[in-house]
Amino acid sequence: MSLMAMRASQKDFENAMNQVKLLNKDPGNEVKLKLYALYKQATEGPCNTPKPGAFNLISKAKWDAWSALGSLPKETARQNYVDLVSSLSSSSKSSDQVEPGADRKPPGYETLVVTSEDGITKIMLNRPTKKNAMNRQEDYNCGHFIQHWHSLFSVCELQMYHEIMLALEAASKDDSPITVITGNGDYYSSGNDLTNFTDIPSGGVEEKAKNSAILLRNFVGCFIDFPKPLVAVVNGPAVGISVTTLGLFDAVYSTDRATFHTPFSQLGQSPEGCSSYTFPRIMSPSKATEMLIFGKKLTAREACAQGLVTEVFPDSTFQKEVWTRLKTYAKLPPNALRISKEVIRNKEKEKLHAINAEECSVLQERWLSDECMNAVMDFLSRKAKL
Ligand code: COA
């Protein structure tokens, strides 16, 4: 052990932990794993937890990194941690010097493209290679969301779910009279990213289910409370939560190429997004049952006939027709739009929040069921075999 290694005091270590929170650049997963491992080694000593299962991809990567440090003494790990943070801080500073004195840019989005033009704020889901699945884990950069590095990977639960919440919050306060959600690529969204189920925190699956239920409840709550006209421009197939939340939009325009699918029973899960309430009201109880319980996939025209979709357009003219129409609507007096929405929706808000809470608590149980875990494993192992 070098003399330097002996020298990093507890104070240096604490300073380094604070410095890490101030980094403005994501150093990448490899470095974050190294930081995690050194932190654990410095505070707890050699890896002392059982090896996670192969499907707990994130937990396994963390375990591997920690256990690779073997019997490295705590003091050395502490010094290595301090050195690593110091090198990250200086490289982050040197890139800051490119624009001295310039204000930090507002945070960007990793999984969305958000633009405001012609009175419309467009929130575009942007994981086209994953069919715009809604993720909340560490397979993408965490960028500006780096805050609590020592719970490293739970940090990155701030992905598409959190970004949509942030984008909706910003849109609720901006000048655009209308807000739109749409998808990039051939899908609107394939729903919840099923790999979300593989990131099991140290608190185990119960903690994971509890946190996921809280996240889902907050996420759906943002749609319930959104104060301006919210329009879905459904550019392709929609699955799961991207379908159920449609009942909380004010208008849904769809390409004729889209389909609407809620395979909850197949996945051992149950309805969310207030669909247990909105769908029977929008369609009819038995049509909602076919969709939400039996997992019947609707075409765009069927969804329109049943009231879930406002209007269907031929795919070849979809974008042109929809945006032309929305631009006209966006010229209407913004306060009138907002107030009319309030009058239409406010009576329901309290009820919707109660339904949302109930759906999330049922789902919290479902996520712990064998039916659900087996269905998710089936999906992941099918993918692994391809
Ligand atoms: N969760 C995680 N990954 C997803 C996903 C999801 N919901 N939807 C798509 N992906 C990924 C695929 O794993 C694949 O990743 P890869 O390229 O790394 O292998 C990529 O997106 C493209 O999807 P793929 O399955 O190859 O395209 P497809 O056209 O054959 O099928 C779907 C598209 C959406 C029908 C299919 O991916 C699917 O069934 N996804 C699950 C949908 C679901 O059950 N959502 C939850 C509802 S509650």
Outline the structure in words:
With 386 residues, this protein is α/β, with parallel strands linked by helices. It has two domains: 3-94, Acyl-CoA Binding Protein (Up-down Bundle), CATH 1.20.80; 112-385, Alpha-Beta Complex (2-enoyl-CoA Hydratase, Chain A, domain 1), CATH 3.90.226.10. It has helices at residues 3-7, 10-22, 29-44, 57-67, 74-96, 152-155, 160-173, 204-225, 241-244, 275-282, 285-292, 300-305, 318-329, 334-366, 370-385; strands spanning 112-117, 120-125, 178-183, 230-234, 238-239, 251-255, 259-261, 298-299, 311-313. The strands form two sheets. Strands 1-2-3-4-6-9 form a six-stranded mixed sheet, with helices on both faces. Helix 3 crosses helix 4. The longest helix is centred in the last third of the chain and has 33 residues, at 334-366. The chain is globular. The model is unreliable at 1-5, 94-106 and 138-158 (pLDDT under 50). Coenzyme A binds at residues 130-131, 133, 190-195, 239-240, 263, 267, 383.
Throw out a few tags for this protein:
386 residues; six-stranded mixed β-sheet; single chain; 2 domains; 15 helices; disordered N terminus; 9 strands; alpha/beta; three-stranded mixed β-sheet; binds coenzyme A; 2-enoyl-CoA Hydratase, Chain A, domain 1; globular; Acyl-CoA Binding Protein
